[in-house]
């Protein structure tokens, strides 16, 4: 429907930066004129990747839910950033669902299906098996982006490693690519949160917050616990720092929820200076460091 409206829309409407005008002309009006009586779903993907001023305008428009016909449902996807969560949770028409609340079995099932479909053509030719798909699913730790990058790497065509050896490398972490699948995402996200121009001020705060979390493993700390442990005289809010890391760790929205990495490789990334570079965390410099953190897996 919207595609049809776009086909006949003026270039001015297509190219305008006035989100309110586009929402009114491309969404509200067509929906009101539509003869469709069944459910219609509109998806707004990656709200967190919009410019802050655009994001505010979108949230304001969404708050006016009564402008839409009753058969319209809107699905919004976003990384769990605290500022977005706080903006939306006060709206009575919004139902919040966190991927962290989805059962592990359901997530694993979806990822197994994705991996099986992506690598199905390699089952016969390369001796990959359903058991390999199971291992890859477990290795993903429920992170779809890891699964996507792993499949892309395994399917790669080079003179060197074939699909079987690439799969083994991913599972064992024996090649730089197989070991560091999410490193670019980590670096890009941290760079966005701590741009170079502000990094001198941001990095000490980042390290002050993250070092205790890593050192405490396998014990899991919450925002509330970190706040109690916060050095006297520090001028930052732990909740703000963790909230900005919403795509990398869980626990930023609920102060009592244990903080855990979305994927365990994030902590490994931070502890390896050759990988994390400016974002490296040297836990040996922490006053509370002992023999070093264990990354064998968090416990509740």
TrEMBL record:
InterPro entries: NPHP3-like_N, P-loop_NTPase. Residues 9-79 form the Nephrocystin 3-like N-terminal domain. Signal peptide: none annotated. Keywords: Repeat. Pfam families: NPHP3_N. This is Nephrocystin 3-like N-terminal domain-containing protein.
């Amino acid at each position: 429907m919207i595609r049809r409206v776009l086909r006949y829309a003026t270039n001015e409407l297509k190219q305008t930066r006035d989100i309110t005008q586009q929402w009114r002309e491309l969404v509200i009006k067509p929906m009101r004129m539509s003869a469709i009586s069944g459910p219609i779903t509109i998806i707004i993907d990656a709200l967190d990747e919009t410019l802050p001023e655009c994001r505010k305008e979108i949230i304001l428009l969404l708050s006016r839910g009564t402008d839409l016909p009753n058969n319209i449902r809107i699905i919004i996807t976003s990384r769990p950033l605290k500022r977005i969560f706080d903006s939306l949770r006060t709206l009575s028409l919004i139902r919040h669902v966190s991927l962290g609340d989805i059962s592990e079995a359901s997530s694993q099932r979806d990822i197994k299906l994705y991996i099986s479909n992506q690598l199905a053509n390699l089952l016969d030719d390369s001796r990959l098996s359903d058991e390999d798909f199971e291992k890859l699913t477990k290795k993903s730790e429920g992170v779809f982006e890891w699964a996507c990058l792993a499949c892309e790497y395994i399917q790669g065509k080079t003179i060197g490693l074939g699909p079987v050896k690439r799969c083994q490398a991913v599972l064992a972490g024996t090649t730089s690519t197989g070991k560091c699948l999410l490193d670019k995402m980590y670096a890009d996200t941290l760079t966005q949160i701590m741009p170079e121009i502000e990094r001198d001020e941001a990095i000490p705060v980042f390290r002050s917050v993250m070092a205790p979390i890593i050192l405490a493993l396998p014990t899991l700390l919450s925002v509330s616990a970190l706040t109690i442990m916060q050095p006297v005289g520090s001028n930052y809010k732990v909740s703000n720092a963790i909230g900005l890391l919403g795509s990398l760790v869980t626990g930023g929205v609920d102060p009592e929820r244990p903080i855990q990495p979305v994927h365990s490789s994030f902590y490994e990334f931070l502890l390896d200076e050759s990988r994390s570079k400016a974002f490296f965390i040297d836990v040996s410099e922490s006053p509370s460091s002992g023999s070093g953190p264990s990354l064998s897996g968090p416990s509740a």
